[in-house]
Task: structure prediction
Amino acid sequence: MQIIKLQLCVLVWVLFSLSLSCHQAIKNDSNEKATKLTRRASNDKKKNTKKKNKSTKSTPPRMIIGSVFNPQIAAVVDAVSEAKDIAVISVGKDQKVSVGHVFYVIRGGTKIAKLKVTDVYQDLSGAKIIETYKQHEVMVGDVLRSARDLDRFTVLDGYHKDIQRVFGPKGQKKLPELRGYSLLGPNDQKYPEYEHDSTGLIFVLLPGGKFMMGSPEDEPGRNDDELLHKVKVSPFLMAKYEVSQEIWEKFMGSNPSNFKGQNLPVETISWKDCYGDSSSFCRKLWFGLPTEAQWEYACRSGTVTPFSFDSGITLEQENFRSEVDSENRNKTVEVDQGEPNRFGLYNMHGNVSEWCLDVYNEHYYSTPEATNGDVPAKSDGGFRVIRGGCWYLVAPGCRSAARESFGSSKRHEGLGFRPVVCLPK
Result:
Protein backbone atom coordinates (compact mmCIF):
# COMPACT_ATOMS: atom_id res chain seq x y z
CA MET A 1 0.00 0.00 0.00
CA GLN A 2 2.82 2.33 0.87
CA ILE A 3 4.43 1.59 -2.46
CA ILE A 4 1.23 2.48 -4.35
CA LYS A 5 0.93 5.80 -2.48
CA LEU A 6 4.55 6.61 -3.28
CA GLN A 7 4.01 5.88 -6.97
CA LEU A 8 0.91 8.11 -7.03
CA CYS A 9 2.85 10.97 -5.45
CA VAL A 10 5.62 10.61 -8.00
CA LEU A 11 3.07 10.60 -10.85
CA VAL A 12 1.36 13.72 -9.51
CA TRP A 13 4.73 15.47 -9.17
CA VAL A 14 5.67 14.53 -12.76
CA LEU A 15 2.33 15.77 -14.11
CA PHE A 16 2.67 19.01 -12.13
CA SER A 17 6.20 19.57 -13.49
CA LEU A 18 5.05 18.90 -17.04
CA SER A 19 2.20 21.36 -16.58
CA LEU A 20 4.58 24.07 -15.35
CA SER A 21 6.95 23.46 -18.29
CA CYS A 22 4.13 23.74 -20.85
CA HIS A 23 2.83 26.93 -19.25
CA GLN A 24 6.28 28.49 -19.32
CA ALA A 25 6.80 27.46 -22.97
CA ILE A 26 3.45 28.97 -23.97
CA LYS A 27 4.31 32.19 -22.08
CA ASN A 28 7.71 32.45 -23.71
CA ASP A 29 6.21 31.85 -27.15
CA SER A 30 3.63 34.57 -26.53
CA ASN A 31 6.28 36.99 -25.36
CA GLU A 32 8.40 36.23 -28.41
CA LYS A 33 5.45 36.80 -30.74
CA ALA A 34 4.60 40.05 -28.98
CA THR A 35 8.19 41.20 -29.27
CA LYS A 36 8.22 40.37 -32.99
CA LEU A 37 4.94 42.23 -33.49
CA THR A 38 6.26 45.24 -31.60
CA ARG A 39 9.49 45.16 -33.55
CA ARG A 40 7.61 44.87 -36.85
CA ALA A 41 5.32 47.76 -35.95
CA SER A 42 8.33 49.86 -34.99
CA ASN A 43 10.08 49.04 -38.29
CA ASP A 44 6.92 49.80 -40.27
CA LYS A 45 6.63 53.11 -38.47
CA LYS A 46 10.26 53.96 -39.26
CA LYS A 47 9.78 52.99 -42.91
CA ASN A 48 6.64 55.10 -43.17
CA THR A 49 8.37 58.05 -41.49
CA LYS A 50 11.39 57.69 -43.77
CA LYS A 51 9.14 57.42 -46.83
CA LYS A 52 7.15 60.43 -45.67
CA ASN A 53 10.31 62.45 -45.08
CA LYS A 54 11.68 61.42 -48.43
CA SER A 55 8.42 62.43 -50.10
CA THR A 56 8.39 65.75 -48.28
CA LYS A 57 12.02 66.41 -49.15
CA SER A 58 11.47 65.75 -52.84
CA THR A 59 8.51 68.12 -53.00
CA PRO A 60 9.88 71.51 -53.97
CA PRO A 61 8.61 74.62 -52.19
CA ARG A 62 6.18 76.74 -54.12
CA MET A 63 6.13 80.50 -54.52
CA ILE A 64 4.08 83.10 -56.32
CA ILE A 65 5.41 85.39 -58.99
CA GLY A 66 3.26 88.47 -59.42
CA SER A 67 3.39 91.96 -60.83
CA VAL A 68 4.91 94.83 -58.87
CA PHE A 69 2.32 97.01 -60.60
CA ASN A 70 -0.53 95.11 -58.96
CA PRO A 71 -0.12 95.05 -55.14
CA GLN A 72 -2.89 92.51 -54.69
CA ILE A 73 -1.02 90.00 -56.80
CA ALA A 74 2.37 90.84 -55.33
CA ALA A 75 1.05 90.24 -51.80
CA VAL A 76 -0.16 86.68 -52.44
CA VAL A 77 1.85 83.59 -51.54
CA ASP A 78 1.06 79.91 -51.95
CA ALA A 79 0.55 77.91 -48.73
CA VAL A 80 3.47 75.55 -48.05
CA SER A 81 4.66 73.74 -44.96
CA GLU A 82 7.60 75.97 -44.08
CA ALA A 83 7.28 79.73 -44.08
CA LYS A 84 10.94 80.29 -44.94
CA ASP A 85 10.32 78.83 -48.39
CA ILE A 86 7.60 81.36 -49.28
CA ALA A 87 8.44 84.53 -51.14
CA VAL A 88 6.76 87.33 -53.00
CA ILE A 89 8.57 87.80 -56.30
CA SER A 90 7.86 90.77 -58.53
CA VAL A 91 8.57 91.21 -62.23
CA GLY A 92 8.64 94.21 -64.53
CA LYS A 93 5.58 95.60 -66.25
CA ASP A 94 6.46 94.32 -69.72
CA GLN A 95 8.11 91.07 -68.66
CA LYS A 96 6.40 88.04 -70.13
CA VAL A 97 6.37 84.83 -68.11
CA SER A 98 5.11 81.46 -69.30
CA VAL A 99 5.17 77.85 -68.17
CA GLY A 100 8.68 76.44 -68.40
CA HIS A 101 10.37 79.83 -68.11
CA VAL A 102 13.56 79.79 -66.00
CA PHE A 103 14.54 82.43 -63.44
CA TYR A 104 17.44 82.92 -61.07
CA VAL A 105 17.57 84.33 -57.58
CA ILE A 106 20.65 86.54 -57.33
CA ARG A 107 22.29 87.76 -54.15
CA GLY A 108 25.45 89.82 -54.18
CA GLY A 109 25.95 89.07 -57.86
CA THR A 110 25.84 85.29 -57.23
CA LYS A 111 23.13 82.92 -58.42
CA ILE A 112 21.82 81.13 -55.31
CA ALA A 113 18.69 79.45 -56.67
CA LYS A 114 17.14 78.43 -59.94
CA LEU A 115 13.40 78.87 -60.38
CA LYS A 116 11.04 77.49 -62.98
CA VAL A 117 7.46 78.40 -63.86
CA THR A 118 5.33 75.28 -63.49
CA ASP A 119 1.78 76.49 -63.71
CA VAL A 120 -0.48 79.48 -64.29
CA TYR A 121 -2.46 80.64 -61.29
CA GLN A 122 -5.66 81.54 -63.12
CA ASP A 123 -7.41 83.18 -60.15
CA LEU A 124 -4.78 85.89 -59.74
CA SER A 125 -5.08 87.60 -63.13
CA GLY A 126 -1.78 86.41 -64.50
CA ALA A 127 0.29 85.69 -61.38
CA LYS A 128 2.41 82.58 -61.81
CA ILE A 129 3.31 79.71 -59.49
CA ILE A 130 6.97 78.80 -59.60
CA GLU A 131 9.03 76.23 -57.76
CA THR A 132 12.67 75.98 -56.76
CA TYR A 133 15.08 73.28 -57.79
CA LYS A 134 16.77 73.38 -54.39
CA GLN A 135 16.20 74.82 -50.92
CA HIS A 136 17.24 78.38 -50.26
CA GLU A 137 16.58 80.97 -47.56
CA VAL A 138 13.72 83.21 -48.62
CA MET A 139 11.54 84.92 -46.03
CA VAL A 140 7.88 85.83 -46.30
CA GLY A 141 7.53 89.35 -47.67
CA ASP A 142 10.80 89.45 -49.61
CA VAL A 143 10.18 91.37 -52.81
CA LEU A 144 12.74 90.35 -55.39
CA ARG A 145 12.92 93.16 -57.89
CA SER A 146 15.75 95.65 -57.28
CA ALA A 147 18.61 94.75 -59.60
CA ARG A 148 20.93 97.43 -58.25
CA ASP A 149 20.24 96.73 -54.57
CA LEU A 150 22.54 93.75 -54.22
CA ASP A 151 21.86 93.43 -50.49
CA ARG A 152 18.40 92.12 -51.36
CA PHE A 153 17.32 89.20 -53.47
CA THR A 154 16.78 89.84 -57.16
CA VAL A 155 14.90 87.65 -59.61
CA LEU A 156 16.24 87.99 -63.13
CA ASP A 157 14.78 86.56 -66.27
CA GLY A 158 17.81 84.27 -66.45
CA TYR A 159 19.73 87.47 -67.24
CA HIS A 160 17.20 87.35 -70.11
CA LYS A 161 16.51 84.00 -71.77
CA ASP A 162 19.17 84.60 -74.47
CA ILE A 163 21.83 85.31 -71.85
CA GLN A 164 20.66 82.25 -69.90
CA ARG A 165 21.16 80.16 -73.03
CA VAL A 166 24.76 81.30 -73.34
CA PHE A 167 25.81 81.60 -69.71
CA GLY A 168 23.19 79.50 -67.91
CA PRO A 169 23.72 76.27 -65.97
CA LYS A 170 23.20 73.98 -68.97
CA GLY A 171 26.43 75.20 -70.51
CA GLN A 172 28.09 75.29 -67.07
CA LYS A 173 29.25 78.84 -67.77
CA LYS A 174 29.08 81.81 -65.47
CA LEU A 175 28.85 85.47 -66.33
CA PRO A 176 32.39 86.44 -67.29
CA GLU A 177 34.62 88.12 -64.73
CA LEU A 178 36.57 90.75 -66.64
CA ARG A 179 39.71 92.31 -65.27
CA GLY A 180 39.32 96.07 -65.04
CA TYR A 181 35.51 95.88 -65.12
CA SER A 182 32.92 95.77 -62.33
CA LEU A 183 29.66 93.86 -62.75
CA LEU A 184 26.79 96.25 -61.97
CA GLY A 185 23.94 93.78 -62.41
CA PRO A 186 21.10 93.76 -64.94
CA ASN A 187 19.68 96.83 -66.61
CA ASP A 188 15.95 97.51 -66.96
CA GLN A 189 15.89 95.25 -70.01
CA LYS A 190 17.40 92.37 -67.94
CA TYR A 191 20.83 92.40 -69.60
CA PRO A 192 24.00 92.48 -67.44
CA GLU A 193 25.99 95.69 -67.32
CA TYR A 194 29.68 96.21 -66.57
CA GLU A 195 31.48 99.42 -65.67
CA HIS A 196 34.97 100.02 -67.00
CA ASP A 197 36.98 100.99 -63.92
CA SER A 198 39.28 103.50 -65.65
CA THR A 199 36.83 105.40 -67.85
CA GLY A 200 33.50 104.83 -66.12
CA LEU A 201 32.04 103.70 -69.46
CA ILE A 202 29.11 101.31 -68.99
CA PHE A 203 28.96 98.24 -71.24
CA VAL A 204 26.01 95.91 -71.82
CA LEU A 205 26.63 92.18 -72.23
CA LEU A 206 24.89 91.04 -75.42
CA PRO A 207 24.27 87.29 -75.80
CA GLY A 208 25.03 86.93 -79.48
CA GLY A 209 23.46 84.35 -81.76
CA LYS A 210 22.03 84.19 -85.26
CA PHE A 211 19.98 86.98 -86.80
CA MET A 212 18.91 88.27 -90.20
CA MET A 213 21.10 91.18 -91.29
CA GLY A 214 20.10 93.60 -94.03
CA SER A 215 16.57 94.50 -95.08
CA PRO A 216 13.71 92.98 -97.08
CA GLU A 217 13.22 94.32 -100.59
CA ASP A 218 9.96 96.08 -99.69
CA GLU A 219 11.40 98.08 -96.75
CA PRO A 220 10.87 101.84 -97.27
CA GLY A 221 14.15 103.68 -97.84
CA ARG A 222 16.07 100.48 -98.61
CA ASN A 223 19.33 100.61 -100.62
CA ASP A 224 20.75 97.94 -102.91
CA ASP A 225 23.65 97.10 -100.57
CA GLU A 226 21.33 95.75 -97.84
CA LEU A 227 20.98 92.14 -99.06
CA LEU A 228 19.13 90.12 -96.41
CA HIS A 229 21.32 87.28 -95.09
CA LYS A 230 21.80 85.20 -91.95
CA VAL A 231 24.71 86.09 -89.64
CA LYS A 232 26.07 84.66 -86.44
CA VAL A 233 27.82 86.75 -83.76
CA SER A 234 29.45 85.67 -80.50
CA PRO A 235 28.61 87.27 -77.13
CA PHE A 236 30.26 90.67 -76.64
CA LEU A 237 30.07 93.89 -74.66
CA MET A 238 28.90 97.12 -76.26
CA ALA A 239 28.99 100.60 -74.71
CA LYS A 240 25.58 101.64 -73.46
CA TYR A 241 26.12 105.22 -74.65
CA GLU A 242 28.13 106.94 -77.35
CA VAL A 243 31.47 108.15 -75.96
CA SER A 244 30.99 111.56 -74.36
CA GLN A 245 33.22 114.60 -74.75
CA GLU A 246 34.15 114.45 -71.07
CA ILE A 247 35.57 110.94 -71.36
CA TRP A 248 37.28 111.65 -74.68
CA GLU A 249 39.00 114.78 -73.39
CA LYS A 250 40.11 113.05 -70.18
CA PHE A 251 42.06 110.41 -72.11
CA MET A 252 42.92 112.22 -75.34
CA GLY A 253 43.73 115.67 -73.93
CA SER A 254 41.58 117.70 -76.35
CA ASN A 255 38.00 118.07 -77.53
CA PRO A 256 37.51 118.45 -81.30
CA SER A 257 33.68 118.53 -81.13
CA ASN A 258 31.67 121.22 -82.89
CA PHE A 259 28.76 121.10 -80.40
CA LYS A 260 30.37 121.53 -76.98
CA GLY A 261 29.04 119.84 -73.85
CA GLN A 262 30.57 117.42 -71.35
CA ASN A 263 27.77 114.85 -71.76
CA LEU A 264 27.29 115.39 -75.49
CA PRO A 265 28.81 112.76 -77.78
CA VAL A 266 32.30 113.47 -79.00
CA GLU A 267 32.17 114.16 -82.76
CA THR A 268 34.35 115.52 -85.55
CA ILE A 269 36.64 112.54 -85.04
CA SER A 270 38.03 110.18 -87.68
CA TRP A 271 38.20 106.39 -87.75
CA LYS A 272 41.95 106.70 -87.18
CA ASP A 273 41.37 108.88 -84.10
CA CYS A 274 39.22 106.10 -82.69
CA TYR A 275 41.18 103.02 -83.70
CA GLY A 276 44.04 103.86 -86.06
CA ASP A 277 47.18 103.19 -83.99
CA SER A 278 48.47 102.90 -80.42
CA SER A 279 47.71 106.56 -79.73
CA SER A 280 44.03 106.18 -80.67
CA PHE A 281 41.32 106.12 -78.02
CA CYS A 282 40.35 102.44 -78.34
CA ARG A 283 43.87 101.06 -78.53
CA LYS A 284 44.97 103.08 -75.52
CA LEU A 285 42.20 101.56 -73.42
CA TRP A 286 42.06 98.06 -74.96
CA PHE A 287 38.68 98.62 -76.56
CA GLY A 288 37.57 97.70 -80.06
CA LEU A 289 35.21 99.08 -82.65
CA PRO A 290 32.19 96.91 -83.51
CA THR A 291 32.09 94.95 -86.71
CA GLU A 292 29.24 96.04 -88.96
CA ALA A 293 27.37 92.84 -88.04
CA GLN A 294 27.86 93.40 -84.30
CA TRP A 295 26.58 96.94 -84.68
CA GLU A 296 23.40 95.91 -86.53
CA TYR A 297 22.79 93.03 -84.13
CA ALA A 298 23.06 95.44 -81.19
CA CYS A 299 20.84 98.01 -82.90
CA ARG A 300 18.11 95.54 -83.83
CA SER A 301 18.05 94.00 -80.33
CA GLY A 302 15.91 91.14 -81.58
CA THR A 303 13.66 93.15 -83.91
CA VAL A 304 13.17 92.67 -87.65
CA THR A 305 11.47 96.01 -88.30
CA PRO A 306 13.17 99.04 -89.93
CA PHE A 307 13.82 100.49 -86.44
CA SER A 308 14.31 98.87 -83.05
CA PHE A 309 11.09 100.60 -81.99
CA ASP A 310 8.24 98.72 -83.64
CA SER A 311 6.33 101.72 -84.96
CA GLY A 312 9.18 103.83 -86.33
CA ILE A 313 10.99 106.54 -84.38
CA THR A 314 9.96 109.86 -82.86
CA LEU A 315 11.95 112.83 -81.59
CA GLU A 316 11.17 111.73 -78.04
CA GLN A 317 12.97 108.48 -78.72
CA GLU A 318 15.85 109.51 -80.99
CA ASN A 319 17.61 112.61 -82.37
CA PHE A 320 17.16 112.89 -86.17
CA ARG A 321 15.61 115.28 -88.71
CA SER A 322 11.90 114.67 -88.65
CA GLU A 323 9.90 115.41 -91.77
CA VAL A 324 6.63 115.65 -89.83
CA ASP A 325 7.73 117.46 -86.68
CA SER A 326 8.97 121.05 -86.64
CA GLU A 327 10.82 120.58 -83.33
CA ASN A 328 14.07 119.37 -84.92
CA ARG A 329 17.07 120.11 -82.73
CA ASN A 330 19.64 120.50 -85.51
CA LYS A 331 22.43 119.48 -83.15
CA THR A 332 23.53 116.59 -80.97
CA VAL A 333 21.87 115.70 -77.67
CA GLU A 334 23.30 114.17 -74.49
CA VAL A 335 24.35 110.55 -74.77
CA ASP A 336 21.76 109.31 -72.27
CA GLN A 337 18.83 111.25 -73.75
CA GLY A 338 15.91 109.50 -75.44
CA GLU A 339 14.74 105.91 -75.06
CA PRO A 340 16.93 102.79 -75.01
CA ASN A 341 16.35 99.85 -77.31
CA ARG A 342 15.55 96.34 -76.07
CA PHE A 343 19.17 95.71 -75.12
CA GLY A 344 19.28 98.96 -73.12
CA LEU A 345 21.46 100.85 -75.65
CA TYR A 346 20.83 104.57 -76.27
CA ASN A 347 20.88 106.59 -79.51
CA MET A 348 21.30 103.72 -81.93
CA HIS A 349 19.21 105.70 -84.44
CA GLY A 350 20.48 109.24 -85.02
CA ASN A 351 22.46 111.71 -82.85
CA VAL A 352 25.87 110.79 -84.35
CA SER A 353 26.76 108.16 -86.94
CA GLU A 354 29.08 105.55 -85.43
CA TRP A 355 32.33 104.20 -86.84
CA CYS A 356 32.59 100.44 -87.42
CA LEU A 357 35.68 98.30 -87.88
CA ASP A 358 34.85 97.13 -91.41
CA VAL A 359 36.10 98.45 -94.70
CA TYR A 360 33.01 99.26 -96.76
CA ASN A 361 32.22 96.77 -99.53
CA GLU A 362 28.96 97.23 -101.43
CA HIS A 363 28.78 93.51 -102.34
CA TYR A 364 30.15 92.01 -99.11
CA TYR A 365 26.76 90.69 -97.97
CA SER A 366 26.68 88.22 -100.88
CA THR A 367 30.00 86.58 -99.92
CA PRO A 368 30.36 83.45 -97.76
CA GLU A 369 32.46 85.40 -95.26
CA ALA A 370 29.51 87.65 -94.44
CA THR A 371 27.88 84.93 -92.33
CA ASN A 372 30.57 85.34 -89.62
CA GLY A 373 29.69 88.55 -87.81
CA ASP A 374 32.78 88.47 -85.59
CA VAL A 375 35.12 89.16 -88.50
CA PRO A 376 35.13 92.57 -90.23
CA ALA A 377 34.98 92.99 -94.00
CA LYS A 378 38.40 93.69 -95.53
CA SER A 379 39.38 95.15 -98.88
CA ASP A 380 41.81 97.60 -100.43
CA GLY A 381 39.44 100.54 -100.05
CA GLY A 382 40.03 103.28 -97.52
CA PHE A 383 36.40 103.93 -96.72
CA ARG A 384 35.12 102.61 -93.41
CA VAL A 385 31.54 101.72 -92.51
CA ILE A 386 29.49 104.15 -90.43
CA ARG A 387 26.13 103.18 -88.97
CA GLY A 388 23.04 104.59 -87.27
CA GLY A 389 22.55 107.91 -89.01
CA CYS A 390 22.87 111.25 -87.23
CA TRP A 391 21.05 114.40 -86.12
CA TYR A 392 20.73 115.90 -89.61
CA LEU A 393 19.51 112.77 -91.45
CA VAL A 394 15.86 111.89 -92.00
CA ALA A 395 14.47 108.64 -90.59
CA PRO A 396 15.22 106.29 -93.55
CA GLY A 397 18.93 107.09 -93.20
CA CYS A 398 18.78 106.06 -89.52
CA ARG A 399 17.26 102.60 -90.07
CA SER A 400 18.80 99.51 -88.45
CA ALA A 401 20.00 98.22 -91.84
CA ALA A 402 21.10 101.56 -93.37
CA ARG A 403 24.77 101.51 -94.48
CA GLU A 404 27.05 104.47 -95.11
CA SER A 405 30.80 104.93 -95.46
CA PHE A 406 33.37 107.65 -94.93
CA GLY A 407 37.11 108.08 -95.46
CA SER A 408 39.06 106.75 -92.48
CA SER A 409 40.96 110.06 -92.08
CA LYS A 410 37.90 112.28 -92.51
CA ARG A 411 36.12 114.11 -89.69
CA HIS A 412 32.59 115.47 -89.51
CA GLU A 413 30.29 116.97 -86.86
CA GLY A 414 27.89 114.08 -87.37
CA LEU A 415 30.48 111.34 -86.69
CA GLY A 416 31.13 109.68 -83.32
CA PHE A 417 31.49 106.14 -81.99
CA ARG A 418 30.85 103.63 -79.21
CA PRO A 419 33.41 100.92 -78.35
CA VAL A 420 32.97 97.19 -77.86
CA VAL A 421 34.81 94.54 -75.85
CA CYS A 422 35.08 91.03 -77.27
CA LEU A 423 34.96 88.22 -74.70
CA PRO A 424 37.78 85.66 -74.46
CA LYS A 425 36.93 82.43 -76.24
Remarks:
- Confidence is low (pLDDT under 50) at residues 50-95, 119-159, 168-172.
- Residues 2-58 form the longest helix (57 residues).
